[in-house]
Amino acid sequence: MAFLPFYIPRHKRLKIVIIGGGYAGIAAFTTLLHYAQHIDITIVDPKDQHIKITHLHETFRYPLSDVMVPYTDLVARFGCRYIRSKLILKEHIFQQWQNNKCIFLDDEVLPFDYLLIASGCEKQELGQSENILNLQDFMVAAGSDLLTSHIVKHDKSELFISVVGGGATGIQFLFEIKQFLRRHKITNKLRLINSGSQVLEQFPKGFDSYVQSRMRDLNIDFYPNTYYCEQQADKILLKDKLTEKQFNLPSSLSLLFLGKKTEKLFNANAFGQVIVDEKTLPNIFIAGDCSYYHSLGSNTLTAQSAVRKGKLAARNILHHSSILKLLEPYIHRELGYVVSLGSTDAVGWLVSEGNVVTGIPALAIKELVEAQYDLLLMGIDTYLV
Predict the structure, then answer these.
(1) Which of 182-191, 213-222, 347-356 has the highest mean pLDDT?
(2) DSSP annotation string for 18-29
(3) 8 lies in a domain?
(4) Based on the domain organization, do 73 and 88 belong to the same domain?
(5) Is 265 found in the same domain as 116?
(6) Is residue 32 located within the same domain as residue 181?
(7) For labeling, which of 73, 120, 212, 293 is most exposed (least CB within 10 Å)?
């Protein structure tokens, strides 16, 4: 068992409940097991599998099962408990949970010494139809199957596919789709719709120019400063951001990647403890995309920040349960970020945002980071902090 500085455990066997089995929840779960033996952990999640969401675009090349880990596997591997259930999260309920030290789950009362909320952040979604796909659809079927099904159903050549959203998710799906179409000699044309003037606006200068040059090389149409309105039967309705004039283009399918909702983030102090009405709830911690830490650390809605928050919250749960109660503040700053552009190209930054890397070196960095998380799923923690 690894050593955690200033953690002097009491004799009581801790009961810990983790709501959410995403990146933050799993990082916390494995960290708790890494440092402590005498704990009972229950994971509560509405799905039956942990999904590596940042890999979903790769399902145009690999089976969906490659990016999923059944919770039953985690139960068998680590000896925890898993309950499939969805909880409604509200601040006034957090206060009740703190007071009662238990949550009511269907017909069961689930007591806890510490509760970690890691439920993630909702995705922005618009109306659904048979010719609209979003990230949720790729969680239940591989990209290759979804796209092939659509193309076969329409049985037409020269159909247009529209990808809406120029953030990291939209860009990664865009290039995977282009490579998929080329591999299968499918003639569908591809376009990107983006409300901003350039792609990857949240990233350092250089990302946008590199990606847009690659889009031109691959004959991907680009419509910047354009709002998505509606996908109809065979066309997409758009609005020019500058003139506010509506127009339409031929389109048989739209893939919507509109980002995450940020209006429902819950506040936490620098140690990851939930704050409600300016009061700290000492036994309820929070991590991942649903949390905003009032600290010097990064609050970006990325897997990297989610993992770091999850690990810190887990360590602080153990610190708070010990004799000394010396908690660590969250000070993690992102060390880099890589956006893949298909199977053979990528763009990213490392250590400093001015240090932009592209091509094979960027891909190598991405694969190294992803391998590190895969090891964590196996119970091998290679993260330094």
Answers:
(1) 213-222
(2) EE--SHHHHHHH
(3) no
(4) yes
(5) yes
(6) no
(7) 73
